[in-house]
Amino acid sequence: MHCSTHDIKTMSRITELEQRLAEVEAILEAIRSQEIDAVIGYQDVMLLKLRKAEEKLKYNARQQELVVTLGIMALRERNLQKLFDFTTTQLKKTLGISHTQILERRTISDSEELYMLSGAGWNFDSENTESAGLTISSQSKFTLKSGLPVLTDDVRTETRFTDNDLYNRYGILSGITCIIPSTGTFSWGVIAVYSDQPSSFTDYELNFLVSIANILGDSIRRNRYEQVLRDADIRKDEFLATLAHELRNPLAPLQSGLDALSLSNLEPETTCNIVHMMSRQIKHLVRLIDDLLDISRITHGKITLEKKPVDLKEVIREVIQLNEFNNECLQRNVTVTLPDEPLIMYADSIRINQIMVNLISNAVKYTDNHGCIDIIAARDEDRVTIEIKDDGVGLASDMLNSIFDMYVQVDPKRCGILGIGLTLVRSLVKMHDGSISAYSNGNNRGSKFVVSLPLAVQPKTRKKNANNDQQKSLTGQRLLIIDDHRIAADSLGKLLEMLNAEISVVYDGTSALQNLQSFKPTAILSDIGMPEMDGYELAKHIRSLPLDPQPTLIALTGWGENQHKIKIKQAGYDYHLVKPADITQLLKIFLH
Amino acid sequence: MSTVCIPDNEIAEERLRRMILFIAEGEPNSLIAQENLKKICDAHNKYECHIQLVNVLEDYLTAQEYNVLVTPCLILLCPSPRVSIVGTLKDSASVCTALRMI
Q1: Which residues in B lie closer than 8 A to residue A26 (C-beta atoms)?
Q2: What is the pLDDT along chain B (102 residues), one digit of tens a residue?
Q3: Which residues pair with A108 in a beta bridge?
Q4: Cα–Cα distance between B85 and A588 in angstroms, integer?
Q5: Which residues of A touch B (CB under 8 A)?
């Protein structure tokens, strides 16, 4: 073969071109596999990192955008599930990764479990915990336990946790998990992002995920608080409606009673029945109002306990024998089991009585006729445990925790239930360093309330008074009654007159002072809030007079706050009673 | 059995590798290429490697002179024929073959 010079040149040119082509192919391949830093041009060098930096900037901007969008959504969105679903979907898209998930921590039978509430990239039921591979040694559980964000570069070399079943099944190689915070140090759950590539994440992504978790945590907290407020608002509205109804209820029989009493030809027995009925209704009203006032005082920390030795056995007996319970208790099988020895507590007897009245009246209200109520008090070392058990309507399990909250009612249809009784009881029990718990096997399976209270350190048997105060008469007592409320003054006068006391009733302070010299009372019962001369001024006047002996001064008023008690005492009163006057208390004062 | 003597200067030329590595200083791929080339030379210490580094960010005219279009790029100047390799030199076996360092 003969080759001309021209041919040789052509072939050489072809070889050179082939070489250049091979070089260009090698360059293209290197560019494709991202192994090139810069391209050299005719005038200068173009750094490829500019493009990378631009991409990185765009990637970061997308993350920032998601943080902002999610922040706004978290403030507005009330449906947390929507927020979670948006988060998992957008995280997957923004980070360009394979899997995301939001897991909630739940305590079940004393063990902590994680439940997937939302996820992207998985193919299992979100509620199926086991499928989520959330075992004790999983990355999510590890994160929950440590409370810190966890970054895994390559699960194949991971040593901090051993269960990588989830990763194996979904081809996951790297990931970040961090806790979703809740109140204080408590964590609500875990948020996780995973990639099917190793080393997909850096500290930048980790910080980004922590920001997302904090936004979710804030939103969860805000939603929870809002829900609590909404529930409280609903309960308050229901309470106000019930209150209006309950306050109105006793008024109708009272009106009927008054109408009946105005008839002149009533049999004495009928009159007695009507008066009993009216008395019951008034007591009911007084208790409703007392409860309301007490709960308000307790809420504002205005109740102070007047502690003295109290025998709990006597309190329970007294409560059971209360007129208002008597009839209802007779229709139910009420068993009271008390120990032989006295149960002496150092407590405020009125408040202990209030606790027992509320608990027993609840048992009565929620147990139908012929139902059983057991009241058991037993000494437990230096404490006493009181169980009030019934087989009535019972409590659903979700009610057991909230039953002591304000305005919560088990069955709003039942009468005489304001939903503050148990709140009051719990507060009073706590004030006595005690505890109260509610138990029930569910609706219509009865309920049990257990109260534990401390006993007095050195129990002393209270000196019993064998005399029945109420059977004594007030013979020899000269009582002056002063009240600008004429009906109240007259009715109290009539009542005390029936107990053989000599009575004088006046309606203002000046008349009282005029009456003083001629009537010479042994005791004076005076209202405080009166026009012209009030009860304080009157008492000061009386105490400044040279009376021998000085009459016993009893303030009878609607004001029961501590500040009033102090002022009343300073004015010179010996006793302070809150209206309406309890005849038993009055008798105790006169007879002692 | 006969012994063929090869002159010392020929042995030296056979084992000499004169190269220029064009890099963009501070850039990740250029840094990786430098590291990889060092590893290759260390692993083949019977060859005498002379490496000239050219930072194209300071001197791109030398790159143009050698028809270098991208960095990192390694050019084997000696022994001929000239060979150029682009990229991070991560595939050490291929690089050694191209550099005729066996």
Answers
A1: 84-87
A2: 444 444 556 656 788 999 999 999 888 899 999 999 999 999 998 899 999 999 988 888 898 888 888 999 999 998 888 899 999 999 999 999 999 887
A3: A111
A4: 113
A5: 23, 26-27, 29-31, 33-40, 42, 44-45, 47, 49
